[in-house]
Design a protein that fits this description.
With 416 residues, the chain is of the alpha+beta class. The chain is 51% helix and 19% strand.
């Protein structure tokens, strides 16, 4: 009897332990489900993930992008049986079924001809919500596998011009698919526009750098070569060092790679520039560096400090018979690196400064305006150059560069 009682107790304890473990597992699963979010949140995340994947392959357009990979993500996004992407000359990609190419081009051609979305199907769209361009197409065009597919085509428009068509296939075209296909086509157009904008931004950046290099070429190179020539007979070693400085300066200034550099690399170019100018000015030019070591790794726009130093030499100190001093400083203020170039030269009236920084006004202060324009374009107007100046009071130019720039990479110059 006692043995049976103990067995009953042990059995009860065992069942209790099992139930406890089961409840713990259920609780953890329930908590895990909550951690993943609601059904709506998971659906939103999936939609954003698919859109993000497609965007990567659309930014280059239908010519430079990857429409086949984009179609894969877009088909999942629409939940259609198949999808095709066409440009004005033909089908660029098909995903889901390989036997819909002819039907896809039939739909795309109709969209291109009308400039509006078109629906083709063997059954009518059953909804009070009207659908533009309701039509029928021959089911044989979709191939012989299975029942004929219906289709909806929507135009991809970029800056007001039709550049392509999205065609989605399903066994039955319903209004949600029609609206979703139109929205996807609209979104694809925006991605193409962003790609064109990025191309334009790159072209603008290259044009701005060409403008700076054009400024460097006639003025500085002539003076530098003249200074080197003056030392060839009197101090050959000095002339040799200056030739190497000139080579370093030219290699950095005329490199092709990258819109960004580091402060350390820019200062090496500034050093070469200053050595060449000091060969010309001799004791009339003094340069002081006040650089905090932690600022040297800061990513800055390529050729953004050197033009400010050149501006100080040409417009601040060169007009003074006695020359003067330039102070280059870099300070870490937490979220930004503050870089200043200050000279004790002739300065200028503040009204004249405002005029020379105004776009469209011809001026020989090309470097100052160029750097200001690029800082505004890259970081926004709140990161424009700050210039303090007055006649006979010198000039101080300040820029603030964000320390965190995850999308701005530097490129090291190549070549000998």
């Amino acid at each position: 009897m006692i043995g049976d009682a103990w067995l009953s107790v042990l059995a009860g304890v065992g069942i209790g332990i099992v139930l406890t473990l089961v409840l713990q597992v259920v609780w953890r699963l329930a908590r895990g489900s909550r951690d993943l979010g609601s059904d709506a949140e998971r659906a939103t995340f999936r939609t954003l993930s698919l859109a993000s994947r497609a965007a990567v392959h659309l930014r280059g357009g239908l010519d430079s992008g990857d429409p086949q990979r984009a179609a894969r993500a877009l088909r999942s996004l629409l939940g259609s049986d198949a999808i095709a992407i066409a440009d004005l000359s033909g089908i660029r990609s098909v995903e889901g079924r390989s036997d819909v190419t002819d039907a896809a081009w039939q739909v795309a051609s109709s969209v291109i001809a009308t400039g509006r979305r078109q629906v083709f199907g063997t059954t009518r769209v059953d909804s009070a919500d009207p659908v533009d361009g309701m039509d029928e197409f021959d089911g044989s065009a979709a191939g012989t596998v299975g029942a004929p597919l219906a289709a909806v085509g929507a135009p991809i428009v970029v800056n007001g011009r039709l550049v392509g068509v999205i065609v989605a296939f399903a066994d039955r075209v319903r209004p949600p698919l029609v609206r979703a296909t139109a929205e996807v086509a609209h979104w694809c157009g925006r991605q193409f526009e962003l790609g064109e904008l990025e191309t334009s931004r790159t072209a603008l950046a290259e044009a701005e750098l060409r403008a700076l290099r054009a400024q460097i070429s006639p003025h500085f190179i002539y003076n530098a070569l003249g200074a080197i020539a003056s030392y060839i007979s009197t101090d050959p070693e000095r002339a040799k060092d200056l030739v190497l400085d000139f080579a370093d300066f030219a290699r950095y200034s005329f490199r092709r790679e990258g819109e960004f550099s580091t402060l350390a690399e820019e200062l090496r170019s500034v050093h070469a520039y200053v050595e060449l100018e000091q060969a010309r000015f001799e004791e009339r030019l003094a340069v002081t560096l006040r650089i905090e070591p932690e600022t040297l790794a800061t990513v800055i726009p390529f050729l953004s400090v050197q033009p400010l130093v050149e501006n100080a030499v040409r417009h601040g100190l060169e007009p003074r018979e006695e020359g003067g001093t330039i102070v280059i400083a870099a300070h870490d203020d937490g979220t930004h690196t503050e870089i200043t170039v200050e000279d004790d030269g002739v300065g200028m009236p503040p009204a004249e400064l405002r005029t020379l920084l105004t776009a469209g006004v011809r001026t020989d202060h090309v470097g100052l305006r160029n750097v200001d324009s690029r800082l505004r374009r890259i970081y926004g107007d709140d990161h424009a150059l700050v210039v303090e100046t007055n006649p006979d009071a010198g000039t101080l130019v300040r820029m603030r560069i964000p320390k965190s720039q995850p999308f701005h990479e530097t490129e090291r110059p190549t070549g000998g």
